[in-house]
Design goal:
Largest sheet: 3 strands, antiparallel
Radius of gyration: 27 Å
Number of strands: 5
Oligomer: single chain
Shape: extended
Distance between the termini: 44 Å
Order of helices and strands: HEEEHEEHHHHHHHHHHHHH
């Protein structure tokens, strides 16, 4: 909760005009003439296109944003052929025009904290609408759901970087299962990922304040022991717990011969790398998208090469053997700081947790 604002008079503290340096006084006078009512110190400016100021007030960070900017963003004047809202007064018109210039979503909404009113003139853009609905448990109205589904193919017009960012926001912050469900429901999943999950278990380990690196998300879409295959096989042979029989793909424990288990792990590693290669191959994606005649031609690959290589490295230890300088992780607790940075050891450990918690759930009797 944001603390109440306090206003102080400088005279009460013995601060007179003469004690303020001339350059500082000039800046303060200029701000006052422009209508500024408050001046903050230790302010952090975040963002380039839409700068937001992070102001520290006690233990709280308050985001401060201006309604408009004097900076010129385009070489020509933009014209809007959209009619303003009905019965729009002067203040409402200012808010509406400002919303037209903003990137959608929470940025495109305006909240009056005093009147406790949310202004939404722009509606929602598809991917961010899905992300917010999944994370906060919102439901689409019938009208919104209709248009999201009908205009699903329009997301192909987005920049690859934006698609990757939005997908990472959906999958890496504890709402992956709900996000994938909504993407599938509205026909977006086969457009974004025409090649495809234990995402429900992943969500239990992650949260908005405890995200993971994007490499883990895409690795799940397609081990923790750093390549020590002999140790891994010994652990596998000692597992006596019953697995979740609802997974039809899992076979009953049979021959646990080291060579046979090793071959199966190698096959799994090769299969995952093959799927990852398909997800980053323009030709394969275009062939998969050809099954959707209503969509415009697309060979969209929004997973960059650097991320693909990082994901592949997670399983390289299986083929190359024990990694040089490998030190086994001593604690089972997830280090979320290292996970967010993409630490290979931490990503492997978290993936192992996801697999084991999915296949061998604690509440299985």
């Amino acid at each position: 909760m944001v603390p109440e604002w306090k206003k102080w008079n400088s005279n009460e503290f013995g601060i007179s005009t003469s004690t303020i340096a001339r350059p500082t006084r000039k800046v303060l006078n200029g701000l006052r003439k422009r209508g500024s009512e408050g001046v903050f110190v230790w302010c952090e400016i975040v963002g380039k296109r839409f700068p937001v100021c992070h102001e520290h007030i006690g233990d709280t960070i308050v985001e401060v944003s201006s309604f408009s900017t004097t900076g010129r963003k385009f070489g020509r004047e933009l014209s809007y052929n959209i009619q303003s809202p009905i019965e729009c007064d002067e203040k409402d018109y200012v808010r509406w025009r400002n919303c037209l210039q903003r990137d959608f979503t929470i940025n495109g909404l305006m909240f009056d904290p005093y009147a406790k009113i949310v202004y939404d003139y722009m509606g929602a853009r598809i991917l961010r609408a899905v992300r917010i609905a999944a994370r906060l448990g919102f439901r689409f109205s019938r009208e919104t759901a209709h248009f999201v589904k009908n205009f699903a193919c329009s997301i192909l017009k987005l920049d690859k970087g934006r698609l990757l960012m939005e997908m990472n926001y959906m999958l890496a912050y504890g709402s992956a299962e709900a996000s994938l469900s909504l993407l599938w429901r509205f026909g977006l999943l086969e457009i974004l990922l025409p090649i495809q999950s234990p995402f429900s278990t992943l969500d239990k380990l992650l949260a908005p304040d405890r995200p993971c690196h994007s490499s883990l998300c895409y690795f799940c879409l397609a081990v923790h022991n750093g390549g020590d295959m002999s140790e891994a096989l010994n652990i596998a042979r000692r597992i006596a717990k019953l697995h979740d029989v609802s997974f039809q793909e899992l076979s009953e424990p049979g021959d646990r011969d080291s060579e046979a288990l090793n071959d199966k792990v190698m096959d799994l590693a090769a299969s995952i790398k093959r799927v990852l290669s398909m997800m980053s191959d323009e030709y394969y994606v275009s062939q998969a998208m050809s099954e959707y005649p209503q969509a415009s031609f697309s060979d969209l690959v929004f997973i960059p090469l650097a991320l693909y290589l990082k994901v592949c490295k997670i399983f390289d230890c299986v083929r190359q053997g024990r990694e040089k300088g490998f030190v086994p992780k001593q604690r089972s607790k997830i280090n979320y700081e290292l996970l967010a940075l993409g630490s290979l050891e931490e990503v492997r450990h978290t993936f192992a947790r996801i697999v084991f918690d999915t296949v061998y759930p604690f509440n299985l009797t």
